[in-house]
Amino acid sequence: MKEVKLNPQLQSDPKLVGGKTSRRHFLALSLLTMTGLAQPAALAGRMLEDKSGRRRCLVVLTLSGGNDGLNTVVPYGMGRYYDLRPKLAVKGETVLPLDGMVGLNPSMGELAALYKEGKLAVVQGVGYPEPNRSHFRSIEIWQTAQPDIIGDTGWLGRYLDLQDKSDLASRMLAAVNIDPVLPKSLLARKVTVPSVYDLGDFRFKVDSHYQNDRERQLSCFRDIYKDYQFKGALAGQLVKTGLAASAASEKLHKLTADAAAKSSAAYPDGRLSASLRLIAQMVAGQVGARVYTLQMDGFDTHANQSRTHNSLLGNLSRSLKAFLDDLESRGVTDEVLVLVHSEFGRRAQENDGRGTDHGAAAPCFVLGKGVKGGLYGEHPELAANKLVQGDLGFKTDFRSVYSALLEDWLGSDARAILGRSFEKIPFV
Prior knowledge:
Elements: H1 8-11, H2 14-17, H3 23-35, E1 57-63, E2 73-74, H4 79-84, E3 96-97, E4 103-104, H5 109-116, E5 120-127, H6 135-144, H7 155-161, H8 168-173, E6 175-177, H9 213-226, H10 235-257, H11 271-284, E7 291-296, H12 305-329, E8 336-342, E9 362-367, E10 374-376, E11 396-397, H13 398-409, H14 414-418
Parallel strand pairs: 1-7, 1-8, 5-10, 5-11, 6-7
Antiparallel strand pairs: 2-4, 3-4, 5-9, 8-9
Helix pairs in contact: 3-10, 5-12, 11-12
């Protein structure tokens, strides 16, 4: 099993992780690290379904590091863009136009085709008031949807808390994180969310030399929890999470076994493609998750940006197109929407290292068969008196994007999750 960072609550509990940790404690804690432990949470609310009666799900992809929005959705019709970026600006004749003013980076041909097919919504100038240029704080704001406080639950975790308690599949696998470390967006109060970086690692290792080794391991693990009396404030959580992790592992492997070979989609090489392929398998295998999260690294482009950024955007574009093709080939394309965002954009002006520094507002994408494709929102102004300390001023609060996804796609109460109402972007 891959090691994952332990929940800080558990790390600080001497009754659970003190110098005299027993083997039973160790094994239990190991299972917790495998799950990427979310805080415990109950489930209540309605779910929207696709035409086949299957419940919809949302895939949230974070472009980690701060994606340069100006070179992603390029304002080729604004002369000021070329003044700000004499070396980094994308040549206007190479841009894939969305309208007469903005277009996609030339590396994003697959997404440009999806835009023409009405399967891609581009939301411009997304951000929040009083932007923070710290990676850690800004991504926390996006993940909690609480810019004014340090939240202890995520926006998706609060969504999971509202789901129907009677839905057994949701209680076991309400959501899945495709990464070693659980993002704060999935922290809930009563739902445990597994982190599954690689399906092969999300299970007990077996020795082929021994007959029925898996069954013996599972039996032994269950016996650990059967009558053992844990001491400490988190004992109930420990037992519940361990058993849930075991059940989730077995269910994932069972449901995805048949789905693994039922696609001819041509994914490019790389970690992003592997993660998206795994999600397609889980959706097709009817795992029951309503939310999947994953990330793509490498977007902190302070120096020599052009080649790196173009390569990243090209891989992103090809991988997402392959993912939608995969869903189509499996007959589940109606079930999935994908949100693509970053914790912030980059500065409007290039730096001396042929790169860009941390900024604020940036575009985000929503794609899938169920989206109303098109260009949404206003592109931020580039005039010197319209920039905010050198940053693009936001035009659309990211919680307006969340509101549309929560209410119009997932069928939940956005106000209860986000704390107040926000104008919804009509891309669903």
